[in-house]
Amino acid sequence: MDARVEDTAIALAVDLDGTLISGDLLWECVFLLVRANPLYALMLPVWLLSGKARFKHEVFSRVEIDPACLGYRPEVIAFLEEEKRKGRTIVLATASAQDKANQIARHLGLFDRVVGSTVDRNLKSDAKRARLLADHGDAGFDYVGNSRDDVAIFEAARRAYVVAPDRDARNWADAHGGAILFDHGQTSLSDLARMLRVHQWAKNVLIAVPAVLAHTIFAPVTMLQLAGAFFAFSFLASAVYIFNDLFDLSMDRAHPTKRHRPLAAGRIDPPTAIKVAFGLISFSVLLALMLPWEFGVVLGLYFVVTSAYSLKIKRWLLLDVLTLAGLYTVRIIAGMAAVSAEPSYWLLAFSVFFFLSLALVKRYVELDKATISEKQRLTGRGYRPEDKEVIAQAGMASGFSAIVVLALYLDSAAVYSLYDQPWMIWPICPLVLYLIMRIWILARRGEFNDDPVVFIATDWRSQIMIAFGAALMFGAGMVEFNAL
After folding, report:
1. Which of 115, 223, 231, 302 is the most buried (most CB within 10 A)?
2. pTM, whole model, 2 decimals?
3. Which runs of E-coded beta strand occur in 206-328?
4. What pLDDT does residue 185 have?
5. How many other CB atoms are there within 10 angstroms of residue 241's CB atom?
């Protein structure tokens, strides 16, 4: 019997999670469930105590999936299509729920049979091996898998195909000559940095603003406090970004640029991402414990609000941009708490208007680049194309309001008490106006693609304006700086 005939007589069983799709359907459904109703997070440990099979049933039975939005591996799909043309029997064998596996099978149209988990049976590892042996006999099937749980099935299969393997599956393949269909290699530092969105840490330099304005930035103790606060916020923010990406996996996969993010693209699996997120939270808490307790309170508030934003608020019209403006302002409040600085209501008022303008420009750009018709909402947002002009007007008005607040502050008693030559800092008003208007002009031209705060922190023209403003403040307050 030649190899072709032999192959067609042998069933080909395919795992789902990490193999046919790059993600894990159970984890995706857990996050969909919690996003729909955060109170379900309290029920997850209760269900888990009843066993994994029951846990899966409770989660899967409450979530609807769109099979078209899963992260299928194109190499595996192409391989299955070729084997299907040869006349092979293709079996989807998964530890995910039977009904969800049936939906995926109907969508792809590749599988002759589907076996999955039920309310009283978790079809994983040894249980899956037993089922396949019962259906096909010893070495009566080939198997495509990816993880440690698949090693027992590899041992029973006639031939093993190893896809994007974890460490155990890779070691087995190396020892037994398993054919690797697709191997994206180990997670790289670049993948990790992109998942953490390290470039977004630039936003957290706002923590230093109160110390700069109070002229205490160069004190050694203050610099240490600000460094600790910066990394505490950065670590926590990255953890929130990870959870946000997990909640939005299906939407990110349909997005023209977000689909390249490590989680959406399957470069990093959800369990690894969750471990990293909790590690970052732990480091953030440790740093917060070294700072004044008020900073810890602000950090906790930031975590609660950002989590609420990721779960619900970012889908609500206008409340999303107001929350974003508030979160930027919270960073400034955290800076005050970290160095025990007196609160400045001028600074907070300016911050709210300034960052509201930047939040609105972010929504404007999203609407401008969206390919949707009128009356249709932007995916995951509360906005429609006809809102674009109102957003632009509100954003510009908010930016000018920030300038008004700044101008009033520069003529206040606080400025005269802090600066020896207060008239020197008046040019800051047109400098800030330049920053705001330039961002909006670029946005209206369709030439703005970045987070506005990150843009300001990295754009060389904006950096020149900021440096010029800092020089003016330093010159105007020379007496106070020299007295440190």
Report:
1. 302
2. 0.80
3. none
4. 63
5. 21
